[in-house]
Amino acid sequence: MSGAVPTTIIVAGLALAGYALLMTALNRRVGFALLAAIGVLEVLLLVLIGLVVVQLVDGGRPASLPTLIGYLIAMPFVPLVAGLWGAMERSRWGPAVYAVAGLVAAVLMVRLHEIWPVIRV
Amino acid sequence: MSEPAAAAEPAAAPPDSTRTGPGRLLVAVYGLFALSASARAAVQIATKFSHAPVAYLLSAFAAVVYIIATVTLTAGSPTARRIAVVSCSVEFAGVLAVGTWSLVDRAIFPDATVWSGYGSGYGFVPLVLPVFGLLWLRYWSRRDRTGRTAESAAPADTETTSAGTPPAPA
Predict the structure, then answer these.
(1) Residue of A nearest to B48 (CA)
(2) B83 touching A (Cβ < 8 Å)
């Protein structure tokens, strides 16, 4: 499995976190750019889930299958829930929630690689 | 959502509940830990409980504490806030106790919990989270004591007088 998608997610997640923290520092609310960025992150995570499922269908197995499946189920909810929760906020703390989502997405890629080294970063 | 919220405009309204303002971030992080600690405990207990029962039961306990904090901080009623103070205090004590215990007696923790090594596996966020939680709850308790209830504070009001006043005697 190519490491292109996980690497892209790490870069996108960190970029989102950096931009979101800048918005927090500038006392801005969640705007169009952040909504679009977290949407892109969601799509990237869904693509990655598809790629991992293909690996599983092909017969590959990680050391702990329940752990991997837990990650695959929980992952797409991170940008989705954070996106809604942060957009509801009318202060600088909305972008701060987006920053957490971006950081979590990046950390998830490292954890996925630890759970199943086939998922390269 | 009464005023037209152009995204670029700075927002000056004070938080009107424990889940808005800084609480928005706090609830998000608590929710994240509630989810990850629950999932971790569920997998550990379901698949290899006998491997490290103490560690896995502590994982489950941490998960319950995080769920209580998430729910009560989201609810934000006076009762919910009192429960949140207890759960954040238990959480802080738990991080310190389990963190110390995991360093002293490594044999009982062959597998990590959320609170092992003071939360070092999670960037020490578990250590600072209850501190911010308690500070946030103290802000609300002081704001109440200075005469304003959270429920009646309209976002359009002028700056709350409580924000800058010195702490009331306990």
Answers:
(1) A64
(2) no
Residue A64 contacts by C-beta under 8 Å, 6 or more apart in sequence? A115, B43, B47
Model pTM score: 0.85
- Closest by CA position to A87, among listed B22, B7, B16, B71: B7
pLDDT tens, B106-148?
A: 777 777 788 989 998 899 999 999 999 999 999 999 988 886 5
Q: Where are any strands of DSSP class E within B27-164?
A: none
Please say whether the beta carbons of B95 and B62 come within 8 A.
no
Q: Which candidate from B11, B35, B46 shows the least CB-CB separation from A29? A: B11
CA–CA distance, A77 with A64 (Å, rounded to integer)? 21
Residue B8 above 50 pLDDT?
A: no
CA-based torsion, B109, B48, B93, B119: positive or negative: positive
CB contacts of A32 in chain B (<8 Å) are 7
DSSP code of residue B46: H
Nearest CA in chain B to A98: B25
The pLDDT tens digits for B78-105 are: 999 999 999 999 999 999 999 999 888 8
Residue A1 in 3-state DSSP? coil
Other beta carbons less than 10 A from residue A9's beta carbon: 24
* Contact check, Cβ <8 Å, A32/B5: no
From CA A50, how far away is CA A67, in angstroms rounded?
Answer: 17
B154 in reach of chain A (CB within 8 A): no
A31 vs B7, B20, B25: nearest CB = B7
Identify all chain B residues contacting A13, using CB atoms and an 8 Å cutoff. none
